[in-house]
Amino acid sequence: MRQGQGMARRVALGGVLFALAMVLSFAESSIAPLLGLAPGMKLGLANVVVMYALLFLGGRAALALVLLKALFGLLTRGAVAGLLSLAGGLFSLLVMLALLHGPLRPTGLILSACGAIAHNLGQLLAAGAVLSSAMALGYAPVLLVSGLAMGAITALVLKALLPALARLGLPAGPGVEALKQPEQPGGEGHG
Fold it and tell me: CB neighbours of 76 closer than 8 A, spacing ≥ 6?
């Protein structure tokens, strides 16, 4: 019975995370023009939810959110939006998983920035395939810089939310330590 309750809790949490990702995605689509961001540039607020799922619930939960976000994009904004969301989300998730399971433990900032840059690169590659042209890659410098900045913001937001998230009592995944690492220049971390 206990295992069934755990599964029900994970499914319910997955539904809440998906709804939160959609709300944040809608909000950032509304906010981006007001901030004067370049076309295609977003704050990446919904990526906070995917990164949370990856760190606290694992790769499968994060993959499910990436797939659901792409389906939502397909249904609400069309095939190209769905494809771009899928390509960016999958590439981002693969890079973050590789970093988490690699020999070195990345900081939350590195993990998030690499995920954001990978997301933008995945979208650029998909756009190039849709356009049958490498012209989309001309936009790469802008999206790489924005990916670095937005990835840093994502990491800071998630790190700021950690104390509240810890009170939910969810089991932490293998990457949570990346967000907890002390950022002390020249000092030693707590062992």
Answer: none
